[in-house]
Design goal:
Layout lengths: L1 H10 L5 H26 L3 H18 L6 E3 L2 H8 L10 H21 L11 H18 L1 H5 L8 H10 L6 H18 L6 H17 L6 H4 L17 H25 L10 H17 L6 E3 H9 L6 H16 L1 H4 L4 H15 L2 H10 L1 H16 L2 H22 L2 E8 L4 E5 L10 E7 L6 H8 L11 E5 L7 H17 L3 E6 L2 H10 L1 H5 L4 E3 L6 H20 L1
Amino acid sequence: MTKLKTWVQTLYDRKTIKQDAVAGLALGVVSVPDGLAGGLLAGVNPVFGLYGYMMGTLTGALFTSATFMAVQATGAMAIVVSDVPQVRVGEGADRALFTLAVMTGVVMLIAGFFKLGTLLRWVSNSVMVGFINAVGVNIILGQLDNFSGYEAVGVNRVTRAFDLLFNLGQAHWPSMLIGAATILLIIALEKTRLGPLGMVVAIVLTSGVVVVLGAEVAQLRDITDVPGTLPLPVLPDLSLIPVLIVPAVALAFVGLVQGAGISGSMPNPDGEFPDASQDFVGQGAANVAAGLFQGMPVGGSMSASSLVKTAGARSKLALIIASGVMAIAILLFSNAVGYIAMPSLAALLMLVGYRTIKPEDIKAVWRTGATQATVMTVTFVLTMLIPLQNAVMVGIGISLILFVIKQSNRMTLKRWEMDDTRGRMKEVDPPSEVGVDEVIVLQPYGSLFFASAPVFDEALPDVTPASHNSVVIIRLRGKSDLGTTFMDVLARYAYALRSASCKLVVTYADEKVSDQLVVTGAAVALGKENIYESDEWLGATVRRANDDARTWIAENRQVD
């Protein structure tokens, strides 16, 4: 009972009901055309976009820990949906869309329950910059048909854009004028006291012009009926799971990345930042609800979250009110919504796409280095040319490869020189070769796992014909899971040193290292007497190994 009371208290504050009501009304009104535009961008029935907004905003408010997170369809997610053939064509496409939303929600729920938010850090900034900016361009290109009134032909948005360019004479100029007027009005009215509501006013005015003048411009009612009822629940089609699993994972990834941006940048009214894992759960629940009630996939929307916060929201009540406003619009104004001009919605989306493109981010990545610039460019090009769900997965793969490369390149090897008179150690670069009658203490820094092992191997001093009666000590304190690749390097180096009448010594502190030395056979190559287990005193074991090495060198020098 106490938990329920605490949960209810997070939803509203009696002292701020007026501010929340105003903010909720603003978000709800703006979300009606925005939701329809989201469905249009996804290439599905625009009404499904509005249903997704309504259910996503309500359910997200109930289950996220972020006070201001508005869970709605985002441009990036809509573009991914538009590239899923099962939801756009054929009998059962609508149910496939709802199933996709539920599956996306399940993936998000798993990420939240198992606290997998750290996995998002595996995606490099260069990949995300390339992807997001390509999404912005895709949004613009994807709306050229509705904006121009010309149905272009091509295998992707780029080729269809060129088809329009070469056939501008066939464009419907009244539609283009309505679209251009909508863009200009939105920009102008947003600078007035209307603020975000200027978007709604601009769409109403330009759509009204179409109705009054009787212009032959496509309207929403020409492509779908806007029902005056709330959606009834629809069960997902489980037979579609195999073909929808990849886009579901891609959608979940995009939605969670964007949602994490909200969780990490918008503190709650108490000054604390939201729990990202709980926000994953909230977004997952919102998608399940959206799918069950005939909506498209949704995620944390930065623009909607910023709008409701700027409008004066103080609690989650604002989001609940916003979903109520959308429900009222569906019930009472469905006929009026049908008169919205398609070029007006296209113009809104094109403006959203333009604002998604961030030249400053592109410049920053470009100046970082050739590798980052190449990754960003490859991601951008792939996102423009192949289905976005595949581009997302390729982007994740590129990030993983880049991570491995970075980790391996971060491995450095230093030599520790002992100062016995003062009890100090000096760190210098390791020698290029193993000499005669010398002790070389080596300290590796960074990862030694898998891809870093060859880098470590290259950094080791070479064993040459001139090498003789020397000891190389490798300090592995702080290392644990080294892997078989690294152990193979140790074994080969130990045999190479032994062939030159030298030897390799290893010091370690983690018991896992000892187990790996034995299991891989590296312990045999080293010899039991050349493996030192460290204690709690830093530097004590390596000094003992250093002293033993000097004794060994002196004894063998006498024998020679």
